[in-house]
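Deliverable D4.2, example record:
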Amino acid sequence: MNKPVLYIVIPCYNEQEVLPVTSKMFLDKINSLAQAGKISNASRVLFVNDGSRDETWNIITKLAETDEHFEGVCLSRNRGHQNALWAGLMTAKEKADVTISIDCDGQDDINAMDEMIDEYLAGSDIVYGVRKKRTTDTWFKRTTAEGFYKVMAMLGADTVYNHADYRLMDKRALEGLSQYKEVNLFLRGMVPLVGYRTSSVYYERAERIAGESHYPLKKMLALAFDGITSLSVKPLRIITNLGFFISFASIIGIIWVLITKICGVTVSGWSSTAVAIFFMGGVQLLSLGVIGEYVGKIYSETKERPRFIISETTDGSKPVKDEHGK
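Output generated by the structure prediction step:
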């Protein structure tokens, strides 16, 4: 039986400080897995430069020149973590039997890859890297992150609790994933939709080795809202139910206004105005905002713009195109 070719797919954005350190870790892991006879020596570490403004791409090209196990693709501009990861997976799909996606910062336990490969060799098509606990996070980040997964579950979205984008996918799973054509990507919710045999590997997450996080609160909240609106229509149903509730509450409000008017304990016209403004105004704006998010997603999807454009590669191969299946 031929040994599988593994591609470790790593999105990079302004990672000049941490890349020289973690690149050695990824290379050592490829070599150790190959020496153990679990993967082919043709396995590679694939870096995806997501329009970095520092020396990240220069570092990647130098790594590729010094060792054949390093490869890199450069996106034409910054497209965001999810699109960069997608670009890497779709590129690796043409070359690899199995991929493992991981961030460049060294926080995810690289040694969990050994168990992932074991699960793959035992028959799993997808293996999720799941955090055991969040002791390295601040109280706020831990609370909001865990709350996010719980909210997603309540809304009916199929996600893996405490799993981000550290996962193994074999060629069959990647082929299935490639059939999803949406522009608004939320991979940790899309991958479970692929199906096939799955398993999980649990690990401890460390502190970032160097540099600063590129996911501040604003981006995390945007990703969370993106995930909710991409995977569930329950917010729209909540608005519908809220409309029924408001209609019922408004009747009670009208009765209250009439009673206070008859009793003469209110300024003429104040009660009815207050009920109309405070009770309906905020709810309407909130509802329109949620509906607008869905309309905006529909607008983006109908244009079918490419999720990524690759400007160059380190191996000189023809860049993979994102054509939405056309």
